[in-house]
Amino acid sequence: MSSALAIAGVSSVLQFYLTNLYAPLSALFGSTVKVSSQAPDLVQEAFTPGSPENQVNIFLHQVTHNVGWRNQDLPSVAADGTTRLSNPPLALDLHYLLTAYGSADWQAEALLGLALLMLHENPVLTRNDISNAIGKLPLSDPSNPLSAPLGTANLADQIEMLKITPATLGREEMAWLWTALKADYRPTFPFQVSVVLIESANPAVTALPVLVRDLVVQASMASPLPAITSIIPAAGQPAATLNTTVRVQGNHLTGATAVVLSNSLRGINQTLVPTVLSDTALTFTPPDLGSPTELAAGIYDLSVQVPWMLTATTTNSLPFAIAPEILAGAPTALASGNTTVTVPCRPFLRPGQQAFLIIGDQQAAADPFTVATNSPSFTYPNLQPTSGAVPLRLRVDGIDSPIINMTSTPPAFTGPNVTVT
Questions:
Q1: CB under 8 Å to 348, separation ≥6 — which residues?
Q2: Closest CA to 204 of 92, 88, 71
Q3: Helix/strand/coil (H, E, C) string of 255-302?
Q4: In the chain, what are the domain boundaries?
Q5: What is the rounded CA–CA span in Å between residue 10 and residue 146?
Q6: How many angstroms separate the CA atoms of 335 and 354, rounded?
Q7: Which residues of 25-35 are buried (b: 16+ CB within 10 A; e: fewer)?
Q8: What is the pLDDT of residues 322-374, one digit of tens each?
């Protein structure tokens, strides 16, 4: 594939061969024919009054996506949004205007006719044509600082050949275009070059080849592959807490060897040993290590590793939440006004986690901390009194500590509670 210099490379190749076309014809036109690749207004400003205007200019006026290549490749990053899987090419069509300038009768027409015949006779720029043109640029145009770097664009090595096709612009489109260019109209031929494939050279991750392909046929609409369908924390809670049993339901879970919890935001990837109950269910327990390295509160991707056929496979992943807990020793009574509250909790809060303490409906963010802590403090600049005991909640990365008994009918608040006077 080509580098980002490929667009400039196409213009340089066209300019090179047009220059060679007119080089032996200076006697025919009365002076040397200059070939440029600039905006038409710049070309017009450079003319000296009274001097010959024998010049042909190619101007790249538009770049568009190539529709045939636009959706050919896979996504370039994995589900975590950061791991690069591939470098899909940027496929472009280049739209040019070829304009002829002549100071005497018929000169512009003659210049235009010669250029059009060359493009007609060479509708494809071959790899040899491209390599030859770019390789000679340092000699033919030594003053241009891009002459040498264009040799590294790899334009001749891309998969697609460069094809030149005429483009059709109506009178109104042509008039609008030249009005925008702020230049006087001259005989112009619009054409297109496609397709230019620009590819990044960033490192990517590529999967290993498949060693064995195991095909299974069964008379059922259910997938024969191991899969998980639901995650059920203990006591009907929406999120699990440390040291409580979590039930995972699915299909073909017999022999499961590991439950994998992954939190890319916090850089956590932990494997836990499950207890397999049946082919459709297993349980595991997030451990309470009582240390800063234990599982943090937040949202995880949960998947299960299961032996399948001759190899091990990983099921689909489902979102799984671990909630913080306020431990014994939290205050039960507070004074209103400017108040700082410290609460013991688990798991440890890690630097960078967003933590809030909610007293009834009054919320305060955690005071800054730079190391993992299990006793964060929260400052309320103007804590208001409450009419009685109200629930005390700790919210970490959007997950609230449990304060409701979900097994009772109807559900009821269980605490911890605090009174502000």
A1: 291, 292, 294, 296, 372, 373, 374
A2: 88
A3: CCCEEEEEECCCCEEEEECCEEEECCEEEECCCCCCCCCCCCCEEEEE
A4: 6-198, 227-322, 325-420
A5: 13
A6: 25
A7: eeeebeeebbb
A8: 999 999 999 999 999 999 999 999 999 999 999 999 999 999 999 999 999 99
Class of domain 227-322: mainly beta
**Does position 217 have pLDDT exceeding 80, yes or no?**
no
The tens digit of pLDDT for each residue in 117-135 reads: 999 999 999 999 999 999 9
Question: In this predicted model, what pLDDT tens digit does every residue of 137-172 receive, in sequence order?
Answer: 998 888 889 999 998 898 998 988 999 999 988 889
Q: What residues does 417 pair with on adjacent strands?
A: 391
User: Long-range pairs for 209-213 at CB < 8 Å and ≥24 separation?
Assistant: 212/309, 212/310, 212/311
C-alpha separations of 4 from 1, 8, 69, 152, 192 in Å: 10, 8, 17, 10, 19
**Cα-based angle 162, 167, 170 (whole degrees, multiple of 5):** 165
In the prediction, which pLDDT does 142 show? 87
Q: Compute the distance between CA of residue 391 and CA of residue 386 in angstroms, rounded to an integer.
A: 11
- Are the beta carbons of 366 and 378 closer than 8 angstroms? yes
How many CA atoms lie within 13 Å of 290's alpha carbon, on the beta-carbon side?
A: 1
**Higher pLDDT among residues 11 and 312, named by residue:** 11
**CATH topology of 227-322 equal to that of 325-420?**
yes
Q: Mean per-residue pLDDT for 270-274?
A: 95
Contact of 6 with 90, CB cutoff 8 Å: no
Tokens describing residue 182? 């702020």
**Residue at token pair 């699990």:** 240
314: tokens are 């990983």
Domain 325-420, what fold?
Answer: Immunoglobulin-like (2.60.40)
Closest C-alpha to 11, from 182, 155, 157, 200: 155
Mean pLDDT of all residues in 391-399:
94
DSSP calls for 16-81: HHHHHHHGGGHHHHTSPPEEE-S-HHHHHHHPPTTS---EEEEEEEEEEE-TTTTT-SPPSB-TTS
User: What's the one-letter identity of residue 41?
Assistant: D
Within 296-352, strands assigned E span 298-308, 311-314, 318-322, 325-326, 333-334, 337-342, 345-346
Q: How far apart are the first and last CA of the chain?
A: 71
Strand spans (E) along 66-186? 90-101, 124-125, 162-166
